[in-house]
């Protein structure tokens, strides 16, 4: 299916690897021009080069720490300067550390808010004014399945991502009249570096093997496996597409049936 977004411009953040890179790949496959970012220069340059080579699209890469308001705004400006517009924003960032309530002091909470809420706020604030005059836009916030069903031992993620979904739903209402669609995607367990690190940390705590933890997560999905990273991008690309023109304000799980709620 042609998603109807060839030559659109997308800013996909935290995208040198993992879910962000997969979202960028799926958009590149549709002929979308890309602006990608991450903190580490080398991995980012490698990803930019491979996307440009594989899909023949323009890729702008910017090293950037999204918890820094100035850097996040500069990233948006740089993208707009290069492509003269931003049609699509996929707001993604790193994940907060695991732990229970007793494990985190107030500074850790503030860092998690900066990482997962404020980064999304800065990106949306800077990008929306570029979309409104065009009367077309797609914003996807990448959160976690924890917004539908809290995950044990991830209180920071469980808490802060709920705020992002609250913002996304409200933004969908405010921006609908301007032709801008806003949705959230809620991934379950995808086998990325982040999930491998979480498995290792859990194994250190419990004395087991990382693979035992991955198997336990797999068992929580009704499909009895964790997801392959490349299974993430197509959902994001569809939500960013012309075809998804009547989908806004949703939070869509992509979790292999992990969450047991009805909606
Ligand atoms: P990952 O570790 O594989 O990739 C993270 C990417 O984010 C990298 O490109 C890294 O450079 C970038 N990044 C991290 N902090 C950044 C910052 N401050 N500024 C700019 N870039 C930054 O992680 P992932 O598995 O792709 O996860 C991405 C997000 O999705 C995280 O917030 C994670 O918690 C969340 N998530 C992941 C899963 C999963 O199964 N992988 C499930 C639910 C939620």
**CATH domain class name of the largest domain:** Alpha Beta
Most strands sheet: 7 strands, parallel
* DSSP strand content: 5-15%
How big is the Rg? 18 Å
On the 0 to 100 scale, the average pLDDT is 97
When the domains are counted, the total is 2
Compressed to H and E, one letter per element, the order equals EHEHEHEHEHEHHHE
Q: Using the 3D structure, state the CATH architecture of the largest domain.
A: 3-Layer(aba) Sandwich
- Residue stretches low in confidence (pLDDT < 50, at least 5 long) are none
Number of helices: 8
Q: N-to-C terminal Cα separation, in Å?
A: 27 Å
Estimated structural class: alpha/beta
Give me the side-by-side strand order of the main sheet: 3-2-1-4-5-6-7
Q: Kindly identify the CATH topology of the largest domain.
A: Rossmann fold
Q: Write out the CATH superfamily name of the largest domain.
A: NAD(P)-binding Rossmann-like Domain
Instruction: Bin the helical content.
Output: 40-55%
Bound molecules: nicotinamide-adenine-dinucleotide
Report the strand count.
Answer: 7
Q: What spatial form do the alpha-carbon principal axes imply?
A: globular
